[in-house]
Amino acid sequence: MIKINKLEIENVKRVKAVKIEPTASGLTIVGGKNKQGKSSVLDAIAWALGGNKYRPSQAEREGSVVPPYLHIVLSNGLVVERKGKNSDLKVIDPNGQKAGQQLLDSFVEELAIDLPKFMNSTSKEKANILLKIIGVGDKLHELQQKEQELYNQRRTIGQIADQKTKFAKEQPYYPDAPKEPISASDLIRQQQEILAKNGENQRKRQQLASIQAQYASKGQEIERLRQQLQQAESEYAELGRDLDIAQKDTLDLVDESTEELERNIQQIEEINRKVRANLDKDKAETDANDYRAQYDQLTVSIEDVRKEKTALLNNADLPLPGLSVEDGDLVYNGQKWDNMSGAEQLQVSTAIVRKLKPNCGFILLDKLEQMDMDTLKEFGKWLEQEGLQAIATRVSTGEECSIIIEDGYVAGQESLPAQTPEQPVAQTKTWKAGEF
Questions:
Q1: Could you tell me where the Polar residues compositional bias lies (predicted)?
Q2: Cα–Cα distance between 427 and 98 in angstroms, integer?
Q3: Distance separating alpha carbons of residues 232 and 1, to the nearest angstrom
Q4: DSSP 267
Q5: Which phi and psi (to 5°) does residue 235 adopt?
Q6: Residue 215 or residue 82, greater confidence
Q7: How do strand 98-99 and strand 88-92 relate by DSSP bridges?
Q8: Element containing residue 343 per DSSP (H, E)
Q9: Angle, nearest 10°, between helix axes 259-266 and 184-224?
């Protein structure tokens, strides 16, 4: 990783003359009171390495007759200078060959010199940067869309199931009603069949009475007509046989009542209303159960998608343990950005920015007064473990500060000569395209 070995700044914003040799790993804190030039140091570094888009609107120190001068020596041997009336850029490799901004852009991460741009972005924008880094953004977006579609579908199914269940509960139920609606024509037909059967029974009863009368008459006639006894006895015997048949036919006859059918005909609409109510209740309960089954199946599908998302992120090369993306938001140790501490936010930002361009081993941090001493030490220790260099400012003059800026100078440091003449840099390391 490429870091800043030393830097010299003159006449930039509030800085008069400052020389710093940052620690290779961990925190280099530029302390001092307000309006002494601390932030000007970071602005000067950003301008030197990031190009003219980071040039301050009033770059030259007020009251200075000498133009700004920037001189930075990087750990890969490159020397970066801006000097002269137009603050022209000069990038020199260890062999004295000149290069330009394109070379610096190849390893200087933009967010490393403009961290507020990342920290002030939305949580979703931060999450998108992280997903882009680890190369799972498109796949995770696809899974999130699928999860949302399943969730919306399940919510609709659940609402329908609740409506069906509520409707089923509100429906009356009549256990005495038949399963299917009844027809008035069927009842009338059944009534006519019974009436016809009863009429036939009556006819047979009348026939029995007639035969009985004839039988009695013939008996009397036998007494009166002895001379016709043989003929009368023959007829009598015949009638006796007919009588036996008639008696057998009527012995088991039972007349059926049409009272229930007549009552059903009169109540057919009420009966059918109960039947329809029962059928509606049964259908609502069936529909509710079907939709509940669909809801449960969609729940399983949503859980499967969530497991796939988790596996995708678990297998990704994340820049920091505990860092993840949930529902499109950046999450660290289970907390979203607005619930993270200031130290955690800086740690997450630094890790992500480092991941954007692994060769960029430094980062600029402004206004670390938000951290207490314990948090500051914890953050510095983490930087050292990661081998990262951070140059930061803090409104303080305490022992935690590496240097103190007073009125544009480093307290206790001898003033630098104006416009340090260019000196060749004698180092053995050489630069080649694509190597640092």
A1: 416-430
A2: 15
A3: 144
A4: T
A5: -65, -35
A6: 82
A7: antiparallel
A8: helix 342-356
A9: 150
Burial class, 317, CB count within 10 angstroms (exposed 0-12 / middle 13-18 / buried 19+): exposed
* pTM of full prediction above 0.70: no
Contact 127, 325 (CB under 8 A): yes
DSSP assignment letter at 24:
S
* Superfamily grouping for domain 4-108+357-410: P-loop containing nucleotide triphosphate hydrolases (3.40.50.300)
pLDDT of residue 424 exceeding 60, the answer is no
Per residue in 136-160, pLDDT tens? 767 777 887 888 889 999 999 999 9
Give the whole-angstrom CA distance, residue 418 versus residue 66.
8
Q: CB–CB of 309/147 below 8 Å?
A: yes
Alpha-carbon distance of 406 to 435, in angstroms, equals 39
Band (pLDDT 50/70/90 cuts) for residue 228 is low
For 213, the token pair is: 């009368």
Which residues is 20 bridged to in the sheet? 7
Locate the domains of the chain by residue range. 4-108+357-410, 184-267
